[in-house]
Structure formats: C-alpha cells, structure tokens
C-alpha cells in the first residue's frame, strides 16, 4: 500500500510542532536556570517585595546580576541610575562597582527613595557612596558632568527612553556603558502587531542604539531584556 502524501504531510507537521514545543520548554527552563544562577540574598528579596508594594517593578535577578557584571567589567567608580525604585538595581550596581565608587540615582517619587535608602542601609552601603536625587530625570541629568560617568543604567518612563539615551551619551566617558531595562517589554517588542506608545519607543530605541556608529551594542535576553552599549573612543 502506497503511503498517502497527505498523511505524511500531517505527520511531518505534527512532528514539527512537537519539536517546537520541546524547544520552547527547554528555552524556558534554561531562562529560569540563568535567572537563578546568581542568587539574591535577603536584602534584595526584601527590597523586591517593597518594590512590588510600591508598584515600581524591580529588575529581575538575571538583569541585576548582569548589571553587577557590567559595573565590575568597566571598573565603575561613577554610575548614574535613572529610576531608583526600592533600590534593587542600586544594590546590584554598587556590589559590582569599585569600593570607592559613588552611585547617583534619580527618581521622581520620594516614597521610592525612602524605600531605597532603607534597602541601602540594610545592605551595609555607606551613605557617602550614594547620591539620592529626587526629581524628574530629564531635569536632573543635564546638571550632571559631561563625560564623568562609567555607566548609566535606565529603568524609568519607557516613552522617554530615547531622551535618556542622548543624556547618557553626553554623560559617559569613552568606553563607558549604557544599559536599558525592559528592552523586550514582556515579549511585545518582538511582536510586530504590538504598537502601543511604550513598545514603539523601546523598539525604536533598540534600532537607534544598534545603528549608532558611536556605540557597540548588544541585547542581553536576561530578565525582561537588557539593552547595552559601549561608547566608542572618539
């Protein structure tokens, strides 16, 4: 009996779907493993809970670990953080920075910075290593020194990400790093049908960073996506 071509095609499609499902499951397992690869301690767990209560969703553990790595890689002594939240990313950054490094962190919500100050105290971070500035970042950043920073991390208003990029390029020294959290935006950036304001802004930021000849860019699939770029020497 000659096998039906239609039956063979159906079996092929079924096998393909089964393989895709297995790959998807493996990717999820690998992502979860990577997120937990560097475990968070009690200080970060408490800060994460505070952030959730305040409605300022912190960076996920994998992104936090990547930020610590970036700070250590560039030997960061001066770092700017846009969006303090409850201090989760602040602690990750400070743990990667030089022992004499200073973090300047900006948030428009005083309540967030009160929570962050508690977190930093619990983490044993000396007060002279952190500058907490309350205000709108786009009003604060222009007052900071040109070329005076090793790393700029942004986790704030997504629609303003392109404006933060221009400020970061001014603030960074050659060889400095800029990083944006939520670069995958809950899977929406990769979906062409998602065209809301925030998704569109993040998608356009990715293209801008990737195509900017002043930068060496990469998109890290940790947490909710971490878009990173190194400022080239002039």
The CATH topology is: Rossmann fold
CATH superfamily placement: Vaccinia Virus protein VP39
Quantity of strands, as a count = 7
Largest sheet at a glance?
A: 7 strands, mixed
How many structural domains can be distinguished in the coordinates? 1
Give the overall form: globular
Task: Record the SSE blueprint.
Layout: H1 5-35, H2 42-54, H3 61-73, E1 78-82, H4 88-96, E2 102-107, H5 110-122, E3 130-134, H6 137-140, E4 149-154, H7 161-171, E5 172-181, H8 197-211, E6 215-220, E7 226-231
Parallel strand pairs: 1-2, 1-4, 2-3, 4-5
Antiparallel strand pairs: 5-7, 6-7
Task: Describe the model.
There is one protein chain. By secondary structure, this protein is α/β, with parallel strands linked by helices. It has a single domain (42-231), classed as Rossmann fold (3-Layer(aba) Sandwich). 47% of the residues lie in helices and 19% in strands. It is built from eight helices and seven strands, in the order αααβαβαβαβαβαββ. The protein has helices at 5-35, 42-54, 61-73, 88-96, 110-122, 137-140, 161-171, 197-211, and strands at residues 78-82, 102-107, 130-134, 149-154, 172-181, 215-220, 226-231. The protein has a seven-stranded mixed β-sheet, with helices on both faces. α4 (88-96) links the parallel β1 (78-82) and β2 (102-107). α2 (42-54) runs antiparallel to α5 and α3 (61-73) packs parallel to α4 (88-96).
């Amino acid at each position: 009996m000659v096998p039906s071509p239609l039956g063979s095609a159906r079996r092929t499609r079924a096998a393909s779907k089964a393989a895709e499902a297995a790959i998807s499951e493996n990717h999820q397992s690998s992502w979860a493993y990577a997120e937990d690869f560097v475990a968070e301690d009690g200080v970060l767990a408490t800060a994460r809970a505070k952030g959730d209560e305040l409605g300022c969703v912190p960076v996920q553990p994998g992104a936090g670990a990547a930020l610590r790595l970036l700070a250590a890689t560039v030997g960061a002594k001066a770092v700017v953080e846009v969006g303090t939240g409850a201090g989760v990313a602040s602690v990750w950054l400070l743990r990667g920075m030089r022992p004499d490094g200073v973090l300047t962190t900006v948030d428009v919500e005083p309540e967030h910075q009160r929570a962050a100050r508690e977190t930093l105290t619990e983490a044993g971070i000396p007060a002279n290593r952190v500058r907490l500035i309350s205000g709108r970042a786009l009003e604060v950043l222009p007052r900071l020194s040109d070329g005076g920073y090793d790393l700029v991390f942004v986790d704030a208003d997504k629609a303003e990400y392109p404006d933060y990029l221009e400020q970061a390029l001014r603030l960074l020294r050659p060889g400095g790093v800029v990083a944006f959290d939520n670069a995958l935006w809950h899977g929406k950036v990769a979906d062409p049908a998602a065209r809301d304001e925030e998704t569109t802004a993040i998608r356009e930021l990715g293209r801008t960073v990737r195509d900017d000849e002043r930068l060496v860019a990469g998109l890290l699939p940790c947490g909710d996506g971490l878009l990173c770029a190194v400022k080239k020497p002039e």
